[in-house]
Amino acid sequence: MNTIQMSITVELTVFPCEWTLIEGGGLQSELKPGLDLSPRPVLDGWAVRNDFLAVRPERASAVSAFLNRTGVFSRASLTSAPIPSSVDDFRGFQSLIRDLVLNRPALWSQIMQRYPKRKAAVLNMHRLPAFRIDWSREVPSAIVLDTRVLAAILATVQIDHWRHATFRPCAKPGCWRLFEARGTNKIFCSDKCAKHQSLRRYRAKKSEAGQQRKKKPLPDE
Ligand SMILES: [Zn+2]
C-alpha cells in the first residue's frame, strides 16, 4: 500500500433554490430556473458546516435565510416532500450532524438508530464523497465538489474523522457551535462566547452578593 499526503478542499457550488416558510413551521422549496447564467457562488464546505450548526432554529427566518444562501440541501430537496420539510426537520438534521462530528464513524450506525428512518436514508444517499485531483498547481490537491449542502457537510465530517480531528461543543448555553479541540482545554468556541459567559458569571455573583447583604440583619435588629 502507498501512502500520500495531500491537501483536500470541499467546495459547495450553490445550486439556486428558493425556500419559503409556510404556516406552522413548514418549508417549501422550488428550484430557480436554470436560465440564469450568472456564475454560481462556490462556498467552502467547512464554512457551510459551521454556519449550518450555528443557525438557531427558534428563529425560523434564520433557517430559511441559511437555506436560500446555500441552495439545494439534499438530493431529496426538490420533491413534493422536500428535505428538510420543516424547521423542526432542519433542527433534527443539525442535531444529527453534531452527533456525527462528535462520534467516530464506527459508531454511526448505532447513532442513526436514535433518528427517524427517513433521516438515515437521506444520510446514506450522501455518504460517499468522490474527489478529483487538481493538477493545475505545482503540488496537486484533492477537491470534493458537490451541489448539495448535506453532501458537502458530510464530506467535511468524514475528512475530519479521517485526519483524527476531535471536536467539542461550546460550553455557552444556547450556542450550538462545535470547535476543534486541537489538544487544548478550551471550552468555548470563540472569545465572544468566553467573554459572554464570564460577564454572566460576574453578574450572577454580584447579584448573589447583593442578596446576601440584604439577608444580613441590620445592627439594631
Ligand atoms: Zn460558542
Comma- or semicolon-separated keywords:
two-stranded antiparallel ribbon, 221 residues, 4-stranded mixed beta sheet, 41% helix, alpha+beta, 17% strand
Describe this structure in words.
It is a single chain. The chain is 41% helix and 17% strand. By secondary structure, it is an alpha+beta fold. It has one domain. The strands form 3 sheets. Strands 4-1-6-5 form a 4-stranded mixed beta sheet. A two-stranded antiparallel sheet has the order 2-3. It is globular. The relative contact order is 0.14.
List the bound ligands.
zinc ion
Q: Whole-number radius of gyration?
A: 22 Å
Low-confidence runs of at least 5 consecutive residues: none
Number of helices: 7
Tally the beta strands.
Answer: 8
H/E element sequence: EEEEHHHHHEEHEEH
- Residue fraction in strands: 15-25%
- Average predicted confidence as pLDDT: 86
Instruction: Trace the largest sheet across and list its strands.
Output: 4-1-6-5
Could you give a short account of the major beta sheet? Answer: 4 strands, mixed
What is the structural class?
A: alpha+beta
Shape designation: globular
The N- to C-terminal Cα distance equals 85 Å
Q: Number of domains in the coordinates? A: 1
Helix content: 40-55%
